């Protein structure tokens, strides 16, 4: 990863931006942005997002100070309760590209999950891959008209996602690279499975996701489009 020459300093960015944005090249054919929420007001929802849910409930998305944040001082925290709390970045429209986030599952007795969304039309239609600290697995779904369906893994018959250690109270990295109907999922820097699906083919928004009573922290949300 390399920053563009002449990119302003962190102190300059904090003075000018709601969320720090880093621009860099990816494989020579994509441009990516990283949002770390460091200049957003603490205790408030971040600007530029639709903070909502799939289903019912009362989600709560706020920027909070967090000593353990990978990019200090702030994170985006979901601490409400809903069927699926959803945060959608409104100014994105990506068909082929990637989305990646660092997350920490803090608590939740019904669920303890963190997810990333892509090709979202709205809060009821999108793809999502999530990691779950209560189940220790990573699963990819499509959500169509508010109904979530898990998708099968390429080269395997049956099953439900893949097992992976999702330790509560620790930071992890979740990523999906998507092009056409092929989705490649990586967890903590390692590719773990691929999925094929052609339900949503148009460009859409990216975002973040949790489930039920999950209290989850997010930082360094990175996304980009393949040109």
Automatic annotation (TrEMBL):
Lineage, top ranks: Bacteria, Pseudomonadati, Pseudomonadota, Alphaproteobacteria, Hyphomicrobiales
Signal peptide feature range: 1-32
Naturally occurring in which organism (per UniProt): Bradyrhizobium cytisi
Protein name, UniProt field: DUF1080 domain-containing protein
Keyword vocabulary terms for this entry: Signal
């Amino acid at each position: 990863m390399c920053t563009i020459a002449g990119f302003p300093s962190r102190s300059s960015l904090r003075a000018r931006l709601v969320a720090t944005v880093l621009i860099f090249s990816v494989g020579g054919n994509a441009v990516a942005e990283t949002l770390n929420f460091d200049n957003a007001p603490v205790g408030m929802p971040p600007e530029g997002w639709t903070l909502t849910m799939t289903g019912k409930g009362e989600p709560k998305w706020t920027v909070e100070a967090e000593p353990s944040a990978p990019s200090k001082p702030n994170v985006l925290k979901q601490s409400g309760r809903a069927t699926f709390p959803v945060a959608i970045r409104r100014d994105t429209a990506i068909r082929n590209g990637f989305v990646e986030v660092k997350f920490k599952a803090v608590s939740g007795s019904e669920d303890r999950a963190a997810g990333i969304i892509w090709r979202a039309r709205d809060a009821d239609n999108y793809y999502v891959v999530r990691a779950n600290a209560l189940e220790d697995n990573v699963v990819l779904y499509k959500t169509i008209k508010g109904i979530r369906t898990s998708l099968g893994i390429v080269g395997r018959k049956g099953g439900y996602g893949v097992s992976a250690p999702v330790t509560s109270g620790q930071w992890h990295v979740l990523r999906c690279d998507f092009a056409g109907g092929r989705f490649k999922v990586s967890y903590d820097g390692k590719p773990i499975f691929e999925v094929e699906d052609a339900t949503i083919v148009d460009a859409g928004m990216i975002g973040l996701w949790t489930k039920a009573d999950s209290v989850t922290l997010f930082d360094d949300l990175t996304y980009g489009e393949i040109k």
